[in-house]
Amino acid sequence: MTKTDLFLELAKPNTKGVSRWVNTSEFVGKYKVLQLGNGGSWCRASSTLAKKYIVEFDKSKTSGNSIDAIRLLGFNTEKTFNQNIRQDIKDFYKNQNCVMLGINGNSENTKIEIDHKDGRKDNCRISDTKTQKLEDFQPLSKAANNAKRQICKRCKETNLRWNAKNLKGNPYSFYEGNEIYTKELGCKGCYQYDPVAYRKTSVLKISHEITENIMKKLYPED
Question: Can you name the residues that pair with 57 across neighbouring β-strands?
Answer without folding.
Answer: 70
